[in-house]
Amino acid sequence: MLKSFLSAGLSCGHPLFIATQKCSPQNLAKELMPPVEDSAPDHTKSRHSETNDELKIAWRYQNTPQMDSTCNSYSSSSYNQVYDLSQTVSEETLAKADIHYFPESVDKNQFTYEELYSAISNLISDRHHVDRPTLKTVLRIGIQGIGTELWSGNIVLFLYKLSNLIRNSYACVFITLATSCMEPEIVSRCEHLSDLALRLDTLSSGDRDHYLNEYHGLFHIGKQCSLNSLGVHIPDSNDWGFRLKRRRFIIEKLHLPPELQDSKQREQDDSVPSISCGTGSKRSSALDF
Fold first, then answer.
1. Membrane-spanning residues where (predicted)?
2. Is the pTM of this model over 0.85?
C-alpha cells in the first residue's frame, strides 16, 4: 500500500519524500510501479458481463439486486488508477521525478525521529508551506517501518509534531508501523494522532474458513478521517478482505457465500433423526419407542 501511495504521486507528478531504514530509500523508489493503461481490472469486467446475462437457473432471483464485493474505486475517472505489481518504473522516470530521500547516505546504524522531523520540516518550510508556497503541488511523504529498534526517540512526540506541521502545508503522509515491535498502548496513541488508521491481518492456511480461501488476509479500518466535516463517513460494510495476485492488490467486501446443496451445514440439517412411534419403522434414535 505504501508503494501504491508513492506510485500514485509519481504518476501525477507530485514531489516525493521517502524515508526508510529497512533498505536503502533509493532501492525502495526503484520498486515503485507504473500505472496500468486500462484501470478496470479483469475480474470487474467479467462480473459486469455476467450481470447483463439472463439468469436461467435461478430465475426467481433475476429481479433482486446483485452483490458487488469490490469497493467502488474503479471508476471512469482518470484519478483512480491501478498499478501493475509485476513491473517497476524505468530509471528515466525516476531521474525526472522530484524525489527526496532520508537518510541520504547510510553513515550510521540508527537515526532519531528528531532527525527525520528536521528533514521533513526543512523541506516543507522551503517549498510547501501554506504561507509561502514555492510549489503548490502536494508533497507525498512515505515513511516505512517506524517503531523498530532502527529508530530512536519518542515516536508519539514525533507524530504529534508532524501532525501539526502537516496541517499548515501542502503535504500528506503515509506511515507504516511495526506494531509487533511496539506496546499496545503506544500503538493506540499513534492511531489517535493519525487521521486515518488501517490494519492488515494476514491469514494462514489453517486460519482460513471455507469462505476465506481466496483471500490472503483481512482489511480493517480502525479510524476514519473527519477533517472539515460534521461527521465521519460510515461505509456500508466493515468487513473487508484483501488478496494479492501476480499483478494487482485487490480489496473486496466480505460476505457469506450461498448455502449450496452439498455443503456441510446442509448435510448436518439432513441428518437430524426423526421421532417416530410406529412399530414398522427402524429404530435410528434413542428417542424412538
1. none
2. no
